[in-house]
């Protein structure tokens, strides 16, 4: 895992060195820059060494004939097996590093006249890369099809471009300005959906996109997504085998590795398989980490302790931040790392957790992606209930029921009935648009998938839009802020193929994650399967009140600041605020939190805040 950067036809020979300094936290082990002798491109890499720790494996990587130069961020699943296959085909590998494998495979394909996308389709893992072909004077940029690793592109004058793993790298070569046009989409999603970023002239390469720059002209192609049509059934043992291999591949590192655990099924399943694999290899199970909360309503420490005792893992409990000052500091640092507005409050927790984990290990496995692939979110069940039953209820009765439900305090019931009061597209928008304040004019930037059921559409939307824009972005920025690589075995391509080939109705047949639960149950303590779903969430209402008071002071100043730029009467502002901090309306709390984050981010940009991801 690394930070990569580069620029075409650089005016300043030190440009990439300066860019790498801005993202040095991503790769503290080594740094290198390659400058084209003809001045056409300069590329560099700040390396976090996790496989083949020798200096010979440092980047940039260059083919023996000097034609191809690669900088690579990420890992390739089963890279040692693939290197063996490549060697058997007559290719020469100087190291046993993932980047070396990618360079050889891409160089071989291009020499044969094949498209890079065809090679990248065969590689499971997580990556962003840049490949320079000196013979064709072509720069290829690519991002993995699930969007696990980021790659930003800055458009420069005269058709030139720069690229980097984080937006902050561009501040060393060009002035940047906020793009406030992203606000409606940001408020709907709680993040900025690719290719937008919130910075003018900067785009985030969408998942699976391959960009080709040649002499100022740009073309693009797509890497085929591993997701399949939902048309078949899969035996639990088949899924288990795929997940087990993916976990084994993620554990194939030359440095200490750990794992995040909780009271949930996904991290527990990964931890159980990782512990079993470690023992097969004659190793100790990977050390585990969980975030502890003072409030038992959010705390999963007891469940994690029970799990780790069962698996024989050492467990480290990391305390969640509690004071407004701590939360504000971590939030501001997280926004700088993302480079734009990001309204998932869990970024504060993820930064605190990542800092503690990085003190023990360089690589950490997590269960990210399990909810989206296996049907873990309650709204999938809501979609299923709507399709099977509620849509057949006469429309006037559905609308009346929704109106009456709004008079009570049953948030989930009202949300379901309000969304289900009209057609399927209304339900999709209602259950996925995260802004409950109509005056904000929040608008989702993508629409439901066509020709599929509502539950399948929502799972596909979360997999392709919400997952990369939210959880995966948070894991990357928070981990790499401290030189920590998160690996996500549930997003291995074979796992994705199997999970997405199964209709949502089968994933939800006996409750959430039916197939995954059946597959992993024999490895877990019996009572772990009965744990209620808590998720990696803080007490948003309490945090909102504390951070807003810390940042702005009294309620009048808070309301004026948070609702600035939104045409809302004063009494409505007060009503929204009181609902948000009441602890009884999570939707409103998240909506107002997003407005608060927007203002804090604008203040950062306006004050010229710059620096590394760990600067508060």
Task: Kindly describe this structure.
With 616 residues, this protein is of the alpha+beta class. It has 23 helices and 17 strands. The strands form three sheets. A six-stranded antiparallel β-sheet has the order 2-3-1-9-8-10, covered by helices on one side. It has a six-stranded antiparallel β-sheet with strand order 4-5-6-7-11-12, with helices on one face. It has a five-stranded parallel β-sheet with strand order 15-14-13-16-17, with helices on both faces. A hairpin with a 5-residue loop joins strand 2 and strand 3. The model is unreliable at 607-616 (pLDDT under 50).
Strand content: 5-15%
Biggest sheet strand line-up: 2-3-1-9-8-10
Any idea what the radius of gyration is? Answer: 24 Å
> How many β-strand stretches?
17
Shape: globular
Average pLDDT taken over every residue: 92
The poorly predicted ranges are: 607-616
What is the makeup of the main sheet? 6 strands, antiparallel
Class derived from helix and strand content: alpha+beta
In percent, how helical is the residue content?
Answer: 40-55%
Quickly count the helices: 23
Distance between the termini: 24 Å
Give the oligomer, counting copies of the same chain as homo and different chains as hetero: single chain
Lay out the secondary structure.
Layout (H helix, E strand, L loop, with lengths): L1 E7 L6 H8 L7 E6 L5 E7 L13 E2 L5 E9 L2 H10 L9 H14 L4 H5 L4 E9 L4 E6 L8 E4 L5 E4 L18 H7 L12 E3 L4 E6 L2 E6 L13 H15 L6 E4 L4 H16 L6 E6 L8 H11 L3 E5 L4 H15 L7 H13 L4 E3 L4 H5 L3 H11 L6 H11 L5 H9 L4 H9 L21 H27 L4 E3 L5 H9 L2 H4 L6 H7 L19 H13 L2 H8 L7 H11 L5 H21 L10
Parallel strand pairs: 13-14, 13-16, 14-15, 16-17
Antiparallel strand pairs: 1-3, 1-9, 2-3, 4-5, 5-6, 6-7, 7-11, 8-9, 8-10, 11-12
